[in-house]
């Protein structure tokens, strides 16, 4: 398959997944992060990074706040296009400033390396595949972190974001686990 064909197939998969996510977000009941909190309770004190939700992303902040009481929690910071993410320490109620792509980042900027990443996504499949926004930031980041040490990638999404199969490339980093508002799925 040509690169152009794969790009178009991924773009169509993204459009469909965005539509499903938007509908799921509009219908979501409060407390969707409850399952994520349950999963993270098994990793108390392990440095982790979540994300500041934008648009219709499922909100991990309640689970992140619980985890911050037991160890370091951070959020991603984009430093440059084509570069891996770095992670700035986050705490509930910390001062935030606008970062690239509309996501807020901590004003203080205390960097650290997480061992667990709560990964936002557009779509997922039951084989551990993840479809992101197309910038490759999480793929580059996971590749870099996993080259140093085991790094757990936990996708967090609405169940409606599931696809039967995603168009993936060899550079796409797999998820280890996926948490939805209704279930926890472990891969491999």
Compose a concise summary of this entry.
With 188 residues, the protein is α/β, with parallel strands linked by helices.
What does this structure look like?
This protein has a single domain, classed as Rossmann fold (3-Layer(aba) Sandwich). It contains four helices and twelve strands. It has helices at 3-27, 34-40, 61-68, 137-148; strands at 48-49, 73-77, 86-89, 96-98, 104-106, 111-112, 116-119, 123-124, 130-131, 152-156, 177-179, 184-186. The strands form three sheets. Strands 6-3-2-1-7-10-11-12 form an eight-stranded mixed beta sheet, sandwiched between helices. A two-stranded antiparallel ribbon has the order 4-5. Its EC number is 6.3.3.2. It is an enzyme of class 6 (ligase).
Write the topology of this structure:
Blueprint: H1 3-27, H2 34-40, E1 48-49, H3 61-68, E2 73-77, E3 86-89, E4 96-98, E5 104-106, E6 111-112, E7 116-119, E8 123-124, E9 130-131, H4 137-148, E10 152-156, E11 177-179, E12 184-186
Helix pairs in contact: 2-3
């Amino acid at each position: 398959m040509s690169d152009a064909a794969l790009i178009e197939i991924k773009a169509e998969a993204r459009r469909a997944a965005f539509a499903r996510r938007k509908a799921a977000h509009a219908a979501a009941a409060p407390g969707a992060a409850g399952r994520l909190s349950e999963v993270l309770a098994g990793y108390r004190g392990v440095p982790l990074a979540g994300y500041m939700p934008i648009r219709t992303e499922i909100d991990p902040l309640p689970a992140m706040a619980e985890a911050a009481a037991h160890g370091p929690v951070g959020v991603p910071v984009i430093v440059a296009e084509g570069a891996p993410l770095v992670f700035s320490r986050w705490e509930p109620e910390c001062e935030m400033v606008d970062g690239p792509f509309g996501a807020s980042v901590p004003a203080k900027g205390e960097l650290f390396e997480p061992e667990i990443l709560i990964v936002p996504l557009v779509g997922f499949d039951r084989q551990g595949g993840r479809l992101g926004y197309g910038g490759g930031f999480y793929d580059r980041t996971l590749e870099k972190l996993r080259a140093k040490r085991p790094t757990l990638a936990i996708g967090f999404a609405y169940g409606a974001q599931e696809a039967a199969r995603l168009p993936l490339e060899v550079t796409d980093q797999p998820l280890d686990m996926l948490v939805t508002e209704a279930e926890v799925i472990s891969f491999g």
